[in-house]
Amino acid sequence: MPNPEITASLIAICVNTEYVAYMIIYGLSAAASTRVSNELGAGNPNKAKHAMAVALKLSILLVLAVVLSLALGHDIWYGFFSNSKSITD
C-alpha cells in the first residue's frame, strides 16, 4: 500500500456506505415482514401476497435510488466523510 491512511479512509467510506444502504432495506424488510405476518394471522392470504408484491417493488425502487444517487453524486457523498483532495480523486 503506497498510502495506508488513504486506503483506510476509503475502506471506512465504503463500509459506512454499505451500512447506510443496508439499513434502509433492512427497515423495509422488517416492516414488510410484520405486515405479511399480520395479514396471514388475520386469515388474508391475498392481502399478504399483495403486501409482499408492494414490498418487492418498493425495495427495487429503493435500490435503484441508492445506486443512482451514489453513481451520480459520489463526489458529494465522499465530501460528507472527508474534505481531503486525495480522498476524492
Automatic annotation (TrEMBL):
Keywords: Membrane, Transmembrane, Transmembrane helix
InterPro entries: MATE_fam
Transmembrane parts of this sequence: 6-29, 50-72
Domain of life: Eukaryota
Pfam families for this protein: MatE
GO MF entries: antiporter activity; xenobiotic transmembrane transporter activity
Record's keyword annotation contains Transmembrane helix: yes
GO CC annotation, single: membrane
Family: Belongs to the multi antimicrobial extrusion (MATE) (TC 2.A.66.1) family.
Record-given protein name: ABERRANT LATERAL ROOT FORMATION 5
Organism field: Hibiscus trionum
